[in-house]
Design a protein that fits this description.
Oligomer: single chain
Largest sheet: 9 strands, mixed
Distance between the termini: 68 Å
Helix content: 25-40%
């Protein structure tokens, strides 16, 4: 093998010149390991990791709420982008921890895997990042101060980059009050950006409040001229969560169905409600931790739902003897549901807590939902009938979609990979090198086909606005020529047929006019991809092209501006005299091939915006698509009124 690995010069390319001995083995003391490899502990040092610090400290306060010791958590973004989190829980213990010989609170903030979550009766159930949250936040902060109000005294300790810089000190008296306050400033040496986004924090904190009924979470931002405060407090818990998520849809029945119970020390809460739409939105949680890949609790819920409704349908003659059972997919069409379990010692598959592995959670969820949903349907026959009838319609539509899908498969098998006739494909067959532009209109499509690099850039022009999939079942999707063209061109299939390994292009680039119609078409395309191929967005394959808004000419020189601000900067630089010629592009079709290449398609010069999604904010994303693309006018009007100030360069 050594001979095979030699390069042309006859040396081994894998060889390391220095000796590999004991001196090369590094021992990282204390929290040095966290600062050395922060991504291992908080996922990344991006804006997502920055906000994760807040969630870790808040999780500790929520754990106090879960044991009934806390009912209010205050979170504040301070003027210097430090964060204050204060709760009225029991207060972190301040006595000497025998093994460490230091105050317990100091151990919690300076030692990994130290806390009340590892046995000993501190917490029966808890969230947080494997019990390392407080120390990790401390390690990644420029400074952190903790104040503990306990046994009538206020205790304070300060840390800098993970190290205590003062002993735990009594700084005052607190009477009967109790709780913990943590103030920390993220370390700019660690994070790419240290400016907090209010909307990101409010989405997560709202979710936490929904999941812990009767807990009040108050978020305040004091960075502006006037403080902004939002309070989240839901006595109905996850029932109100479902109502909130369904507020932009038409509910199939007025009441949220709620199931609650404990089996084998697993506490199960489920809330569900169908709407008149076609998308299935189920969100699962374990000890208030989001599990985007589901797991045993989700399996138990699905099993119970399918079994109970089929039993009800047979018993009440909604399903005839010669008719097949309703599938889980049929029964979950238009369903919004929250499945939340509290369990001691949750076992997650992988370090990222994406999927629950405890089989006991499946049995508990199945049992609780089966018993209580059966009782609910018997007491509410009109609701039961409405859900079953919707599922029957879904079953018929799914059968039609299956026929269309099978027809497509047969054609492909007989004719080979038959690509859409309007697609101008690229010659390079390695997907890693290839990209496809989805272009609005034949005129722009013609310019793009002329402008492109034929080796690596494919062009698929679409005629007009595609079908709004938010208002359509799968059978209509397969009947739409423009959508079928995209499905075929991408190569991955959709829904249960989706296979990321068959993706034919590394980049899918949506290129539309920089006006209201263009924005609408881009939104329709994103809605289709999000609802039927979300993995394309999750894995970073979807982009928005950024065509210029203006062309400026002066003295035979040309500048392109992609925003009004950029136009003003150019005019400031070259002068605003009458020799300036400014052209406002109304659409891509106004550009010739050379201009389109120079401004929008040349990889060396173009601007692309990557479309991103985060499992932690999926419920808000679902709600946004339902609001913008659904049937309800009032929620859409409210959304536009609230967000119009963020829209730029729309030619209205």
């Amino acid at each position: 093998m050594a001979d095979e690995m030699k390069n042309e010069a006859g040396t081994n390319p894998m060889k390391v010149e220095s000796e590999y001995g004991a001196d090369q083995i590094q021992i990282l003391e204390g929290l040095e390991a966290v600062r050395k490899r922060p991504g291992m502990y908080i996922g990344s040092t991006s804006i997502k990791g920055l906000h994760h610090l807040v969630y870790e400290i808040v999780d500790n306060s929520v754990d106090e709420a879960l044991v009934g010791a806390c009912d209010t958590i205050n979170v504040q973004i301070n003027e210097d982008n430090s964060i204050t989190v204060e709760d009225n829980g029991r207060g972190i213990p301040v006595g000497i921890q025998e093994k460490a010989g230091r105050p317990a609170v100091e151990v919690v903030f300076t030692v990994l895997h130290a806390g009340g979550k590892f046995g000993g009766g501190g917490y029966k159930v808890s969230g947080g990042l494997h019990g390392v949250g407080a120390s990790v936040v401390n390690a990644l902060s420029e400074w952190l101060e903790v104040y503990v109000c306990r046994e009538g005294k206020i205790h304070k300790q300060r840390y800098e980059r993970g190290n205590a810089v003062m002993p735990l000190t009594v700084v005052g008296e607190c009477g009967d009050r109790h709780g913990t306050k943590v103030i920390f400033k993220p370390d700019a040496e660690i994070f790419e950006d240290t400016v907090y986004d209010f909307s990101m924090l409010q989405q997560r904190l709202r979710e936490m409040a929904f999941l812990t009924k009767n807990l009040k979470i108050v978020l305040t931002d004091v960075r502006g001229e006037e403080p902004v405060t939002k309070t989240y407090h839901y006595e109905g818990g996850i029932r109100e969560f479902v109502t909130y998520l369904n507020r932009s849809a038409v509910a199939l029945y007025p009441d949220v169905i709620y199931c609650e119970g404990t089996q084998n020390n697993v506490y199960v809460e489920v809330a569900l409600q169908h709407n008149d739409g076609f998308n299935e939105n189920i969100y699962t949680f374990v000890n208030n931790i989001n599990t985007p890949e589901g797991g045993m609790h989700l399996t138990g819920f699905k099993n119970a739902l399918t079994k109970v409704f089929n039993d009800y349908g047979r018993k009440n003659k909604i399903l005839k003897d010669n008719e097949e059972n309703l599938s889980g997919e049929d029964l979950r069409e238009g369903l919004t549901a929250i499945v939340s379990v509290k369990i001691e010692d949750p076992q997650f598959e992988g370090q990222t807590k994406q999927k629950l592995g405890n089989s006991i959670a499946r049995a508990a969820t199945d049992s609780v939902v089966t018993e209580q949903l059966t009782y609910f349907l018997e007491q509410n026959p009109a609701i039961a009938k409405a859900i079953c009838e919707k599922a029957v319609l879904a079953q018929r539509a799914r059968a039609a979609a299956r026929k269309a899908r099978d027809m497509t498969r047969r054609k492909t098998a007989l004719e080979g990979m038959t690509l859409p006739g309007k697609l101008a494909d690229c010659s390079d067959k390695d997907p890693k090198n290839c990209e496809i532009y989805i272009v609005e209109g034949d005129s722009a499509g013609g310019s793009a086909k002329t402008a492109r690099s034929r080796a690596t850039q494919a062009i698929l022009p679409l005629r007009g606005k595609i079908l709004n999939v938010e208002k359509a079942r799968e059978d209509r999707i397969y009947g739409n020529a423009e959508i079928k063209a995209m499905i075929t061109a991408f190569g991955t299939g959709i829904h249960e047929d989706f296979d990321i390994e068959k993706l034919r292009y590394d980049k899918i680039i949506i290129m539309t006019d920089a006006d209201v119609d263009g924005a609408h078409i881009a939104t329709l395309l994103l809605t289709f991809i999000y609802r039927f191929m979300p993995e394309l967005i999750k894995t970073g394959h979807v982009y928005l092209a950024q065509p210029p808004l203006y062309k400026v000419e002066k003295n035979k020189k040309v500048w392109y501006a992609y925003s009004d601000d950029e136009l003003n900067s150019i005019l400031m630089e070259i002068g605003r005299d009458s020799n300036n010629k400014i052209q406002r592009y109304k659409g891509l079709g106004e550009m010739d091939a050379e201009q389109l290449w120079d401004t929008t398609m040349d990889p060396a010069k173009r601007v692309l915006k990557k479309v991103m999604m985060d499992d932690e904010t999926r419920s808000e994303l679902d709600l946004t698509f339902t609001t913008l693309m659904g049937d309800q006018v009032e929620p859409r009007r409210e959304f536009i009124e609230q967000n119009a100030k963020f829209a730029k360069n729309l030619d209205i």
